[in-house]
Amino acid sequence: MRRDLGVLPAVFPMPVLMIGTYDGNGKVNVMNMAWGNISTGEKIVLNMGSDRKTLANIRLKKAFSVALADVDHIKEADYFGIVSGNKVKDKFERTGFHAIKGAHVDAPVIQEFPLTMECELLEEREVAEGSIITGRIVNVNVDEKILNEKGTIVAGKLNAVMFDQFERSYYKAGKQFARAWNAGAGLVKK
User: Fold this and answer.
1) With contact defined as beta carbons under 8 Å apart, do 69 and 161 qualify?
2) Is 187 left (phi over 0), alpha (psi -120 to 50) or beta?
3) Residue 1 to residue 57: CA distance in whole angstroms
4) pTM of whole model > 0.70?
5) pLDDT 10s digits, 148-174
6) DSSP letter assigned to residue 123
7) C-alpha closest to that of 79 among 14, 30, 146
């Protein structure tokens, strides 16, 4: 039996994205966000509340970074979502994390997260809930430990975290169980 639940954001999994920015004084700010994803091969789209320090920083610098949260750093990643940079001035410093300036944009690369996309702001569209930010990915910076011998990212080595908005929980990404563009290939031949 099926049941109607009305309107809710019923997508699982959602990414756990760490949005990194600098303010006007070069101070690092990081925000935890689940409301974002890849739009095309080189674009990322984020849905951000209008009162966010991160949004003000993106408007100022026209740049941001997007890191994937991992299991080893879930405590700090969750903290970045609990605490506002508008209220806690040393938010980033309290985690003990380290940042370097991105090589391609004016945004931080957080060293503890294994994968970071350096992005430049392409467009901001204001909506009732805040702003839709579209960025162009200009570089992906990774820790070599997540690469295979060919220099390709191995998703299983990311230890990526997924967000479950139904129960407000985090999940660890699982193991590969099928290959894309292969699992359904047998149906093509029918």
Assistant:
1) yes
2) alpha
3) 48
4) yes
5) 999 999 999 999 999 999 999 999 988
6) E
7) 30
DSSP 149: T
- The full DSSP string for 15-81 is E-EEEEEE-TT--EEEEEE-SEEEEETTEEEEEE-TT-HHHHHHHHHSEEEEEE-BGGGHHHHHHHH
User: 128-153 burial, b if ≥16 CB within 10 A, otherwise e?
Assistant: eebbbbbbbbeeebbeeebeeeeeee
27 Cβ contact partners less than 8 Å away, ≥ 6 residues apart: 92
The DSSP bridge partners found for residue 70 are: 160
Token digits for 78?
A: 């969750």
Q: Compute the residue count for the chain.
A: 190
* Residue where the block lists tokens 């957080």: 110
Q: How far apart are CA 63 and CA 127, in angstroms?
A: 20
Q: What percent of the chain has pLDDT over 70?
A: 99
- The CA distance from 186 to 109, in Å, is 43
Nearest to 89 by CA among 39, 53, 43, 129: 53
Lay out the sheet containing 169-172: strands in order across: 14-15, 161-164, 169-172
* Cβ contacts of 66 within 8 Å, gap of 6 or more: 17, 18, 19, 20, 36, 44, 46, 116, 117, 119, 135
